[in-house]
What we know:
CATH class of the largest domain: Alpha Beta
Mean pLDDT: 83
Distance between the termini: 49 Å
Number of helices: 10
Region (Disordered): 174-207
Protein name: HalX domain-containing protein
Shape: globular
Domain Response regulatory: 6-115
Coiled coil: 121-173
Order of helices and strands: EHEHEHEEHHHHHHH
Strand order of the largest sheet: 2-1-3-4-5
Low-confidence stretches: 180-207
Largest sheet: 5 strands, parallel
Keywords: Coiled coil, Phosphoprotein
CATH superfamily of the largest domain: Response regulator
Amino acid sequence: MSDEPTVLIVDDEHAITDLHARWLEDSYEVRKAYNGTEALETIDEDVDIVLLDRRMPDRSGQEVLDEIREQAFDCRVAMVTAVEPDFDILELGFDAYICKPVSDPEQLREIVASLETRSTYDSQVQELLALSSKKAALEERKESDELSKNEDYTELETRLASLRNELSSTAMELDDDDLRAEFHGRNDSGSKLMKSAEGGDASESRD
């Protein structure tokens, strides 16, 4: 049995699934699924990371994600999707939201390495990073006045502030290099993700 982490790639576009698999297969044990039903048949307790398309014809990525969380699989999940993030992502239990296309092998490897690193953190730090990912994804595409008027986004900010207070001692151990390893180069909102996790106001840098 391989000691490499296991990555499940789920996308109904076969060419994308196969390409991403080729990019990762030298460093990871890779499984592929071409629809949501196949994903749920393929996942088990050995899967460490799931790269999940959001819009699929049989079962949506959201339905697959809900089932993964309901079955309590201990894996990190990134939505890798062409669907632009909206406030509905605040209800989804993913760890990261990555907008397609993923442009090159190194970018995908960085995404997976980031998720692999997150698995070493405790649940509160994982929640902090997941919420920071949602916050940054929204701030990348929403105006500040729209964000401020949304109750769910305000609750997200409140929860993040609470987590930072609860994790003040742990956060001291998450130094700049840790955060940079988490977020650098993953997508256009990488710098915002790092600012958000550190407690900065990512919206200040938004055009």
